[in-house]
Amino acid sequence: MATIPEVPASELIQTMPRVGMGTAAFPFTSSEDTTAAMLRAIELGYRHFDTARIYATEGCVGEAVAEAVRRGLIASRADVFVTSKIWCSDLHAGRVVPAARETLRNLGMDYVDLLLVHWPVSLTPGNYDFPFPKEVILPSFDMEGVWRGMEECHRLGLARAVGVSNFSAKKLEQLLSLAAVRPAVNQVEVNPMWQQRTLREVCRREGVQLCGYSPLGAKGTPWGSAAVMDSGVLQDIAQTKGKTLAQICLRWLYEQGDVLLVKTYNEKRMKENLDIFNWELTDEERERISQLPQLRGLPGLEFISDHGPYKSVEDLWDGDV
């Protein structure tokens, strides 16, 4: 069983495993396959699981953790780090705490280790299939009101730490200026083809942990890109090192100091994704990766609307595209 390094505890968050297992698979649906994959991941050494209301996998994660305890794979729920997210239809000042309680009911847990604002966008309250109709995008996002709800989740013990997802550097700085409880994490797309240089600088300066999803570009999903897996530079480095291209990408994120989220239900790849800790990229390889052309793979087009707060991708990411 692999041992995964952890981010040291701070005043904002407890220790956090540097590699987590993601559960977002389109179309969003729960399944026995997801539960079985999470259970196998625990057997292999994974201790960090990332879910969200919109993914419909909170129940699967909770069932896997409970079964792992029953089987003696872990001593208790406290042995795993669980992240979930408040979806945009609940990102209203009065709806955050009830949404967090619903997440805990789905998980069958008393708390989550980390609770995130999923996107800086509010939708009309209700249940929608994804992608959702544009008319449910509301014209403004009450960042302060929503964050006060997140702070209340922290105060009540529903979430051990709180943070955000898909916040630009500018939006993160805006949140930091008004937060009584500072966000511990910003979870965003990070991979060699979108290295988040601007945001990374702000996170390092402000002590916010960067957590990267889509480290391989999420090829094959509606929101993903083939740019990472098709990169000749990354393919060449992988061949020279005798590693998979995925391992090169994951090692690069690890060396940046990021927490990284992987998503596979294939046992062989689960194991490969943990074989990144006992070797390093060379300075030359790091330099080649640093020179890769940058293009955001997940622009967030679903949230662009003439009557919403963001009329363009540039608006959503404050020019960092």
UniProtKB/TrEMBL annotation:
| A Gene Ontology biological process term | siderophore biosynthetic process
UniProt superkingdom: Eukaryota
User: Domain NADP-dependent oxidoreductase, which positions?
Assistant: 19-291
Catalytic residues, chain numbering: Y55
Q: Which Gene3D superfamilies match?
A: NADP-dependent oxidoreductase domain
Q: Which GO terms describe its molecular function?
A: 3''-deamino-3''-oxonicotianamine reductase activity
- The annotated site for Lowers pKa of active site Tyr falls at K85
Keyword vocabulary terms for this entry:
NADP, Oxidoreductase
| A Pfam family recorded for this sequence | Aldo_ket_red
Question: Where along the chain is substrate bound?
Answer: H118
Give the record's family classification: Belongs to the aldo/keto reductase family.
**What's this protein's name?**
NADP-dependent oxidoreductase domain-containing protein
